[in-house]
From TrEMBL:
It is an enzyme of class 2 (transferase). This is DNA polymerase I. Its EC number is 2.7.7.7. It comes from Natrinema gari JCM 14663. GO terms for molecular function: DNA-directed DNA polymerase activity. Keywords: Nucleotidyltransferase, Transferase.
Length: 153
């Protein structure tokens, strides 16, 4: 029986064209975080971007995140929770900030890859959070990764 493996469009392109998919330089990162007390809210009153904490209006928070993205142009977004991707975009919609994007390409929005789910494995119940794709950037969800924390990054 043959097993089918689905590669991302981007990785398939590299394979088909012979382009090396590994970065030539060290990857740059930007940390986006919200306090645990904010994670159950539909909007955030406090967000930290690149170590700077903003607690003002949604527009001020979104402006600070955009400023950090422009200043650092990160390859990787290290998020305290993956939900931050969707919540920030919803805040932008509610605040009528039409050009907000975490993507490297503002005209390409984020994509939800998978919904949250609960599963059972070897008699244990586990939880898998929502997963997102932000074009042009990789996402690390600190709340759902063991490997990242163990690498001292």
């Amino acid at each position: 029986m043959a097993t089918r493996v689905d590669f991302s469009r981007e990785f398939r392109y590299c394979l088909e064209t012979g382009i090396d998919p590994t970065p030539a330089n060290e990857l740059s990162t930007l940390r986006l975080s919200v306090p645990v007390t904010e994670t159950s809210n539909d909007t955030y009153g406090e967000v930290s971007a690149a170590g700077d904490t903003v607690t003002d209006s949604p527009t001020d928070i979104l402006t600070a995140v955009e400023g950090a993205l422009e200043a650092h142009d990160p390859d990787v977004l290290v998020c305290s929770t993956s939900e931050i991707v969707q919540i920030l975009h919803e805040m932008a919609t509610d605040a009528d900030v039409g050009d907000f994007s975490l993507s490297r390409w503002p005209d390409v929005d984020y994509q939800q890859l998978a919904s949250r789910s609960t599963y059972s494995s070897y008699g244990r119940v586990g939880h898998s959070p929502v997963r997102y794709n932000v074009p042009g950037r990789a996402i690390i969800d600190e709340s759902n990764t063991f490997f990242y924390g163990e690498t001292n990054c």
